[in-house]
Amino acid sequence: MTDPTLLVADDHPLFRAALIQVLHERFPQFRALEAASAQTLGTALKEHPEIELVLLDLAMPGARGFSSLLHVRGEYPEIPVVVISSNEHPRVIRRAQQFGAAGFIPKSASAHDMGAAIQEVLDGELSFPHTDAESSQADAELAARLAQLTPQQFRVLMCLADGLLNKQIGHELGLAENTVKVHVTAILKKLECYSRTQAAVLVKSLEPESGI
């Protein structure tokens, strides 16, 4: 039987090492895996079904703001995600909550506070710093629209946002060009967008106003 696992997804090796040290001391019953990009995050989740919690930095290569959070929540809804970010702006915290995170830990938090927050989430609770930022109806509607996409459609949408043509998307994702066309049509319909450009603008709205 495989040991229960926590996944640390952050592109800064020193921070990953520090956080894994906290995990080893506080949660010796778990092993820790690492990911340094949106792509390696997806690979780790696919290859390790024993993962019980993802600790996610939003600013990794291949991610657009909250896109990795939404992707994990859409494809692996049973795995809680705790966002760990250097951006402690109240709107960032509130948006992480609205987009399905189970917790938010500022990178400035002490090792004790990080461990306590992670324990709360492992116990099935939510763990967020207090914030006065109000929930956004626009974010709620955006999350609901994106939730309609299949995992493959979400991947196609991220490629659309990067300005890739259907042939390029097919090469990137290993899909036939006609299959990509079908996905694009479905994506635009589900997101209520009339063009690829409008869909790309929608994805851009996932990026926080004040930078992560």
Protein model, in words:
- With about 210 residues, this protein is an alpha/beta fold.
- It has helices at about 15-25, 40-45, 65-75, 90-100, 110-120, 135-145, 150-160, 165-175, 175-190, 195-205; strands at about 5-10, 30-35, 50-55, 80-85, 105.
- It has a five-stranded parallel β-sheet, with helices on both faces.
- Helix 7 (about 150-160) crosses helix 8, helix 7 crosses helix 9 (about 175-190) and helix 7 (about 150-160) packs across helix 10.
- The mean pLDDT is about 90.
Please describe the biggest sheet, giving its number of strands, its sense, and whether it closes into a barrel. Answer: 5 strands, parallel
CATH hierarchy class name of the largest domain: Alpha Beta
How many strand units? 5
Query: Per the principal axes of the C-alpha atoms, what is the gross shape?
Result: globular
Modified residues (4-aspartylphosphate): 57
Keywords: DNA-binding, Phosphoprotein
Organism: Diaphorobacter ruginosibacter
Domain HTH luxR-type: 142-207
Keywords:
single chain; Arc Repressor Mutant, subunit A; alpha/beta; EvgA-like; Response regulator transcription factor; DNA-binding; phosphoprotein; WH-like_DNA-bd_sf; 212 residues; 2 domains
Explain the layout of strands and helices.
Layout: E1 5-9, H1 13-26, E2 31-35, H2 38-47, E3 51-56, H3 67-75, E4 81-85, H4 90-98, E5 103-106, H5 111-122, H6 137-146, H7 151-161, H8 166-173, H9 177-191, H10 196-204
Helix pairs in contact: 1-5, 3-7, 7-8, 7-9, 7-10, 8-9
Task: Produce a short descriptive summary.
One of its GO terms (molecular function) is DNA binding. The chain is of the alpha/beta class and 212 residues long.
